[in-house]
Design goal:
The chain contains 3 helices and 5 strands; from the N terminus they run H-H-E-E-E-E-E-H. By secondary structure, the chain is of the alpha+beta class. Strand 1 and strand 2 form a beta hairpin. Helix 2 (17-32) packs across helix 3. The radius of gyration is 17 Å and the shape is globular. 26% of the residues are buried.
């Protein structure tokens, strides 16, 4: 079963408001960038990646949590982050029953996470290339 199929199955198994919220979050994340890849990690967590992990989502009792891997490094002008604010790296958005998803702001946050991942990848690439050149020489 592919990661996307596992996520489909997970969402289908959540029969209350959290399933609908989860499905809407997924749709919004995937609409933010056509190159986002869905993964299934950590024994059952949907993960969205592009040039590194963007976010992971989980349904908990009473909420759906969307955690951004490097959320502490992202601008959040719409103040979406409402959980994990004390951490040095991750930030999360807890969606409670009745909360509306601000699709525009969430897509901007996803794109900011992609930009962050791509910037990290560019910083690593020259160092790795330099190390290879030194070993070869």
């Amino acid at each position: 079963m592919t990661p996307s199929e596992k996520i489909d199955q997970l969402i289908a198994g959540i029969t209350d408001w959290r399933g609908k919220t989860f499905a809407n979050l997924r749709k919004t994340i995937l609409e933010a960038d056509s190159e986002i890849v869905e993964e299934w990690k950590w024994m059952g967590s949907p993960v969205w990646e592009r040039d590194g992990i963007i976010a992971v989502a989980n349904a908990h009792k009473g909420k759906v949590k969307l955690t951004f891997m490097y959320g502490a490094r992202l601008a959040d002008p719409d103040k979406l982050f409402n959980a994990g604010l004390e951490g040095n790296e991750r930030r999360a958005i807890d969606f409670l029953e009745g909360h509306k998803i601000n699709a525009r702001a969430l897509k901007e946050l996803v794109r900011a996470a992609i930009d962050y991942n791509q910037g990290k990848a560019k910083k690593k690439a020259p160092a790795a290339a330099g190390a290879k050149a030194r070993k070869a020489g």
